[in-house]
Design brief:
The chain folds into 2 domains: 12-126, no CATH class; 156-239. A 5-stranded antiparallel beta sheet has the order 3-2-1-4-5, with helices on one face. 31% of the residues lie in helices and 36% in strands. The chain is an alpha+beta fold. Residues 1-6 have low confidence and may be disordered.
Length: 239
């Protein structure tokens, strides 16, 4: 429970969720920009032609799952071109005819008016919201908790509570194991610490410093941030 060993699990979780959310937002932004720029480039000098689906190819990805790619054939300026669609749909079939918008400057580059052209950003942006929201929630909760702890350390009533054991906080997993919390009592009051490290455990009947809110004993903070968290042998129970 020393300062160098104590881990703020909620802060770490907040950082992880926030980073995932930010990464998804960046990925969504990049794919949106790429799609938008590509469509703008095609529309700058384009012609609409009718293409026909001539092949639906199947391949396996790295995980062994099937992936399908549809190929269309179309003619522009007397030149027949076969090129893959940027998306695939279960409703597609051989011989299906679809309208495509072709870039005159580069006839092999084309697009459709299907919403599926925007599939990547449409997936990534909604996925980012829960992660970013959870990360922000962790940061806000951690900030409020840190402010309350600081206030208790400065204005709370210090007591020496008696350690009665530890318990598992199963809502937090550390390397696949539930996080541990310290249990202590004082004058029929029970206290539960934040998560602690295995090598920071106090022994039963040891005394640890706890700061109580002067008006609400349900608000308290364990003093686990320094080397002197255990009660010295000559210290009174209440300071």
């Amino acid at each position: 429970m020393h300062k160098s060993m104590h881990k703020n699990v909620f802060k770490i979780l907040g950082i992880v969720f926030a980073c995932v959310g930010i990464a998804l937002i960046l990925a969504g932004t990049i794919t949106f920009a790429v799609t938008y720029n590509r469509r703008s480039r095609i529309l700058a000098d384009s012609v609409t032609v009718t293409a026909e689906i001539v092949e639906i190819g199947r391949r396996l990805d790295a995980d062994g799952n099937p992936r399908y790619t549809s190929y269309v054939a179309y003619t522009i300026d007397g030149r027949e071109i076969i090129a893959p669609l940027r998306y695939n749909s279960s409703s597609m079939f051989l011989g299906q005819r679809i309208d495509i918008i072709v870039n005159r400057q580069n006839p092999t580059e084309f697009m459709t008016n299907s919403i599926l052209e925007w599939l990547a950003p449409l997936i990534l942006f909604p996925m980012s919201l829960p992660f970013a929201g959870i990360g922000l929630g962790f940061f806000i909760a951690n900030s409020r908790k840190a402010k309350m702890r600081k206030w208790l350390f400065e204005n709370g009533t210090p007591i020496w509570a008696t350690v009665v054991g530890t318990d598992e906080n199963r809502s937090i997993q550390v390397n696949g194991r539930p996080a541990l919390v310290l249990l202590a009592t004082y004058n029929n009051m029970e206290f539960v610490s934040d998560t602690i490290d295995n090598n920071d455990l106090a022994h039963v009947k040891d005394h640890v410093k706890v700061f109580l809110h002067p008006e609400n004993f349900n608000k308290y903070a364990f003093d686990i941030t320094n080397e002197g968290w255990r009660m010295p042998a000559d210290s009174p129970m209440l300071q």
